[in-house]
């Protein structure tokens, strides 16, 4: 293993988390695909008057998920959808098909992605990278109403 040529980090900051702010975000999807939640989540943090802490997002479903992915090139999202469809195709002989051929593949795709995310909050803003966005990923073909619990724990103004 080679050592990195350069390492740096900022000085540690310490806060006493004295507040938890929660909200339920409801999203109506239009079927399979990605919905960018970043602006709505940032709005929640502003309304919560967040300063330093952590944001947790939790989706209350087993056939949709959350992810942090690139927000600059939309073909990334297309390719991710293609990859998930290859990993969990419809009509592959799944036994669970109560709600149709996309039922079991949706559960598998959720298991491969995430039902919760944790994002640091620094100086009142999401500590996302330049090309990162927070997405709800709908794995079902038909529209659904999805609920995401937003919870900020930390210091507020």
From TrEMBL:
Indicate the family of this protein: Belongs to the UPF0047 family.
PROSITE patterns to which the protein is assigned, alphabetical:
UPF0047
Name the lineage: Bacteria, Pseudomonadati, Pseudomonadota, Alphaproteobacteria, Hyphomicrobiales
Pfam families recorded for this chain? YjbQ (PF01894)
| NCBIfam families linked to this entry | TIGR00149_YjbQ
Organism the protein comes from: Bradyrhizobium lablabi
Q: Which domain of life is it from?
A: Bacteria
Write out the coiled-coil annotation as residue ranges: none
PANTHER family registered for this protein in UniProt: UNCHARACTERIZED PROTEIN YJBQ-RELATED, UPF0047 PROTEIN C4A8.02C
Protein name, per record: Secondary thiamine-phosphate synthase enzyme
Matches recorded under InterPro entries = UPF0047_YjbQ-like, YjbQ-like_sf
